[in-house]
Write a structure and sequence with these properties.
Length: 262
């Protein structure tokens, strides 16, 4: 039931590619169109602008979303969500969008092993230096977010074990809630507490790109509106992450990093 769609894919061998099998680039793994933009859009754009090849897996078409449905039939709404994803990805400079049709709201019900293998196959092909996904809290506690976090983490754990001894270890970063993320989307009841931020990226230089990506999501204009009403959120200079691998010591102080891309 997989439908893979690649857009603006550059052939392997161009900038940021897997030349000589070296880990290079950033892979973001999310559940729905818009997850990438509202949680990590600045960081993705920052890496893309710095010449890092950014690949995005979006596991579903977001067809069950309730926002912005007015005047759309089911099929048209799904098409809108997918079109918005591609428009936003272009604004952020994402080199390749891998869009699957795992079913909005059904990610947790999929066969775990085959789902992990699908994500792992992408990791083996793009050989990312850094993988970004949700943490176990899923930011909002959305079951799809929590499920994709678990699947991406399991795939990453296998991928990192394949790295040759002596080669730089890939990193796994989880999204951490912050002022930069619309607060309306946080914390359903029973959501696990988010992990502490260890790593931040200064996104001020790519703010126009993140803004363009957010505006591409016309169906989610309420999120942009919510952010605009909060001066701190609208001008948030950083996006926050928890480095899940390699694990950092408890004494580690949150640090602002330059781009992570070998
Ligand atoms: Zn989502």
């Amino acid at each position: 039931m997989k439908r893979a769609k690649k857009r603006a894919a550059q052939p392997v061998g161009v900038a940021g590619s897997t030349k000589a099998g070296r880990a290079q680039g950033l892979l973001a793994v999310f559940a729905h169109p818009d997850d990438e933009t509202f949680t990590a859009g600045g960081t993705l754009a920052l890496h893309a602008m710095s010449g890092c090849r950014v690949t995005l897996i979006c596991a579903t078409h977001g067809e069950k979303g309730s926002a912005g449905r007015e005047g759309f039939g089911a099929a048209a709404y799904e098409q809108l969500r997918v079109a918005e994803l591609h428009e936003a990805a272009e604004a952020l400079g994402i080199a390749e969008v891998i869009l699957w049709d795992w079913g909005d709201g059904q990610v947790a019900e999929r066969d775990e092993d085959s789902s992990v293998r699908e994500i792992l196959a992408v990791m083996r092909r793009v050989r990312p230096t850094v993988v970004i996904t949700f943490g176990p809290d899923g930011i909002s506690g959305h079951p799809d977010h929590i499920a994709i976090s678990k699947l991406a983490t399991a795939a990453f754990d296998r991928y990192r074990q394949e790295v040759k001894p002596g080669a730089p270890q890939p990193r796994l970063l989880y999204i951490v809630p912050s002022a930069a993320i619309p607060s309306c989307c946080w914390q359903r009841a029973g959501t696990p507490a988010p992990l502490p931020a260890t790593t931040t990226f200064d996104i001020r230089a790519v703010r126009p790109r993140k803004l363009a990506a957010m505006r591409a999501y016309r169906s989610q204009s309420h999120l942009v509106k919510a952010l605009r009403q909060d001066h701190t959120a609208w001008h948030a200079p950083k996006e926050y992450f928890h480095q899940a691998f390699p694990a950092l010591s408890e004494q580690h102080q949150e640090s602002t990093e330059a781009v992570i891309c070998a």
